[in-house]
Amino acid sequence: MVELIYLLLIIFFTIIVFVKDKNKLKIVGKGFKHVTLSFTPYVLAIILIASIIQVCVPQNIITRYLGEDNQIIAPVIAAFFGAIFDGPTIVAFVLGASLLESGASITAIIAFISSFSMVGLIAFPLEKKELGIRFTLVRFIVTVVFTVIIGIACGIIMKKI
Amino acid sequence: MKKIISLLKSNLLPIISVAAFLVIFIVSPEKGEKIAVKFKDTCIDTIPILLLMFALLAFIKVAMDSDVIKNTIEKSKGVKSVLFAYMFGMLVSGPIYPGYSLGNMLIKKGMQVRVVVIMLSVWATLKIPLLPFEVKALGIKLTAVRWIVTAISIFFMALLSEKMLKVVDNKGE
């Protein structure tokens, strides 16, 4: 169903752009090719890593550290791992979905996704260079704390609705 | 030699993942087979939505490739600047790294810290181009909850960051 909605949206945009400016459609085509070629190896790699984790990591380990019984520790562990890794956000969604399937709690997965995308230890030097050490440190500390809060809040809300 | 090293560096993750799979397959063919089946099933499930997402990204990139949008956020004030920060962050694609220099420029031109924090945080985690993929991965309910909770949290993160930065800057003086 989701795919159908987006396919209709893409067809709609294609017609609009084609009618307005055929040259722009060529740019869209080039952009599509560039994005596909640069992202696809990354995505396939992360799907492979997620498959390896699902098969090789015993489910009881995932549930013990990231499961429902660990409502405070699980998001902290997940946020920690999210903070130290860096990459396209899509990676976080693939890994997150895979860990959810393996028994991780919503709280942990949302903390992981938030931390992975918003906190970047690897990007820290670049942010410090552009925005200064004070801004970077303050944003880092506030974001790390809030990724855990976001995880816990999402977990609580999902249980109630 | 340099070309090979550069190729290896830019494809490190795919190389590591394939290497890990091959090692596991050699040590335990049974596990290797299960991984291969899981990989195949996930790819079949994921690739259609991935291609649609890439197409959407390409359209948005063309629409966003205009200085008009950057100028709009630069000239806006107050509530408008906060709203533009949210909109810009949600629509822009790609890694957050260019956002740091944009943030630097906006702060130098007098933009409030809260606006820059909102823009960077939203850019990082609430991406409309990735929405189809997120819905597919997490389901529509969890995606909606994550977006609402995160958007509200980012506002408070921005306010808190601004306050903390004022305290730190005052103590530094």
Automatic annotation (TrEMBL), chain A:
Keyword Aminoacyl-tRNA synthetase included in the entry's annotation: no
The entry's keywords: Cell membrane, Membrane, Transmembrane, Transmembrane helix
InterPro entries: DUF318
Subcellular location, record wording: Cell membrane
Topological type in the membrane: Multi-pass membrane protein
Spans traversing the lipid bilayer: 6-23, 35-53, 73-97, 104-124, 136-158
Main location: membrane
Keyword Membrane: yes
GO CC aspect terms: plasma membrane
Coiled coil: none
Family: Belongs to the UPF0718 family.
Annotated protein name in UniProt: Predicted permease
TrEMBL record, chain B:
Record family assignment: Belongs to the UPF0718 family.
Full protein name: Predicted permease
Any Gene Ontology CC annotation: plasma membrane
Keyword Cell membrane: yes
Superkingdom of the source species: Bacteria
Entry keywords, A to Z: Cell membrane, Membrane, Transmembrane, Transmembrane helix
Membrane topology term: Multi-pass membrane protein
Recorded coiled-coil stretches: none
Transmembrane portions of the chain: 12-30, 42-63, 83-103, 115-132, 144-161
UniProt organism field: Anaeromicropila populeti
Cellular localization per UniProt: Cell membrane
Keyword Transmembrane helix: yes
A Pfam family that the UniProt record links to this protein: ArsP_1
